Amino acid sequence: MMEFTHETVLLHTAANELNIKPDGTYVDATLGRAGHSRLILSQLSDAGRLYSFDQDAEAISEVERKFSPLPANWTLIKANFRDMTDSLAEQGVTGVDGVLYDLGVSSPQFDESQRGFSYRFDAPLDMRMDQSQELTARVIVNEWSFNELLRIFNRYGEEKFAKPIARQIERARAEKPIETTFELVDLIKAGIPAAARRTGGHPAKKVFQALRVAVNDELGALEQSLGEALKMLNPGGRIAVITFQSLEDRLVKVMFRDASSVPDVPRGLPVLPQGMQPDFHLVNRKPILPSDEEVETNHRAHSAKLRVIERNAEEAD
Question: Where is S-adenosyl-L-methionine bound in this sequence (predicted)?
């Protein structure tokens, strides 16, 4: 088995929670640099299948190069995971035994300065995970209205200084277009009081997160994809989701809760009628967190949360 060179968060924990069957069909919805995919694949027999998704052409190409030739039971699919049902149908797959999501931007995307994901590098305002799409961070920053900027900074970044930051951007772009990450960082700093800038990490972190989420429609894609994955899951199959921000974790928590909850029934009903039991149950009531050791060796793990849901096995007649 090849060595993992990318520090994949909750690597073994997430794969273990999938409860992998050697001959099962599995989906890695977020290929990245293939950390989780390779571990899942190592637990499959030749009869098992793994389909790995990524909308980033560079990620697909790097994995194909690094692990060539790919095993016959491993298929890479360049697509947004929101298109999971249609993409798998093209492969003749209508049901799966497990789906794994490792959300957020991968470390290589942050480290490639020209992609514009990071406030640590001066680069064009881009932030596209799929380089073929038209919407970029530059378009949002320069063309979206003040109210739209305020909405995404509040909703996707939970930035309490969203209004003054949006005003700084509005004034600056009236003079000339805002082109680079460092130009935007300076405007964000100008919109935050000096005392607030001295605490709580980098002052641009929340706005950059908000822009990335908006550029890639991350929450919309996640909601659509999770809904499709729940429908495709075979009895006894599991979905495991690793999140790194509260917005994503809240969405996953609510969707999993709704799927595993009993519908409203008359008070005092002693037994749920057949057909009213939920189709799913939560494998863990509370999210699984990385160990202290993992957080020490991989800083990216400090905010990670893993939630797992399982489709109930079909009852025998």
Answer: 34-36, 54, 81, 102, 109
